[in-house]
């Protein structure tokens, strides 16, 4: 099936690559397949061997192409929060002294001005989220095209990532035999499918339990407000099991998936299973309660570090609580542990589409949904950032198999705002001393103080 209207979302994780394929032929997005496979050449969310990562990407995309009987040419790739930085950006251009209609080219010119002004050395733009366009410095509009103007101004948020990391991702995709159409910010992609409108508006924490790292992102008014990262994840739980039980990592991963509980209170010491122990001729019987204690110890350490940053930013006062996703969220009782450790309500998200009913596919599903939902003005933004390689809107698209169709939604202006607090986050597993000091001061602040701190 040589489809020109396929949308393929790629999620390159430390321990696994996930791909989700959607068909948009009927003016609505329909998931038609997904696949995953182990990742090689990645460490803590970054590529350390391009060729190995390319092989991992190729294997998964070939698998999903075969499952869907489709040919895949391009992908849209998620960029994790650990690589993201947000900058306020403003651009201003003159249209014509006597005024004339604003064209696509005028919008592109003002976007170039805004992006170039905000872009920092060593970083590359992946997305620009317009907050507002101003006609002649006073009329606030969502889309200025075909309006009469003497000058055009844009205010928005520029999302960037390190140039070196983006180069490595692109190169790995190219060596796999595909082309990256454009990048999308993974936290916003996940929020588009994991949170309902109220949760995105009034505030929710997305806790992504990945293989190589654990991230917590605060979403409020449809934008990223704060993020914190811990460089420990599911692979560290596997390593703990391997060391404590004196078994191979492959065996440790298997028993984690089959018998692992995050909450020891849900287990019984009477329930036992065999484990192949190094140096032993026969398997050793281990009870599920003991295994759960090993898992829980690592989770408590990780959540303790993640929780410090969230607490210092009063994120636990947000009404949406915590939405848990990522591969490790499949551990039994993980939502109860989060509730107890953070003192908030928590739930696990997994897509409900056929073939996606696993938390590991949350990011890949979010990427295709986010790309599918782009507004028409976002295509102009992407053409400025990515050039001619970006697939054009349906109405302007040829039937070439290299192109894909992307349908569009009307974007809410509130989705395009941001506060400087996000960039104060340290993308490490520790919280700074200033955050720890603020922790004591902010501990007793209520929801009123939270809104004052972030949104005044």
TrEMBL record:
Cell division protein that is involved in the assembly of the Z ring. May serve as a membrane anchor for the Z ring. Residues 413-443 are annotated as: Disordered. PROSITE patterns: HSP70_2. InterPro entries: ATPase_NBD (IPR043129), Cell_div_FtsA (IPR020823), FtsA/MreB (IPR050696), Heat_shock_70_CS (IPR018181), SHS2_FtsA (IPR003494). Belongs to the heat shock protein 70 family. Belongs to the FtsA/MreB family. Pfam families: FtsA, SHS2_FTSA. CDD domains: ASKHA_NBD_FtsA. The keyword Transferase does not apply. The keyword Amino-acid biosynthesis does not apply. One of its GO terms (biological process) is FtsZ-dependent cytokinesis. It comes from Lactobacillus gasseri 224-1. Residues 7-194 form the SHS2 domain. This is Cell division protein FtsA. One of its GO terms (cellular component) is cytoplasmic side of plasma membrane. HAMAP family: FtsA. Self-interacts. Interacts with FtsZ. Keywords: Cell cycle, Cell division, Cell membrane, Membrane, Stress response. It is a peripheral membrane protein. Residues 425-434 have a biased composition (Low complexity). It is found in: Cell membrane.
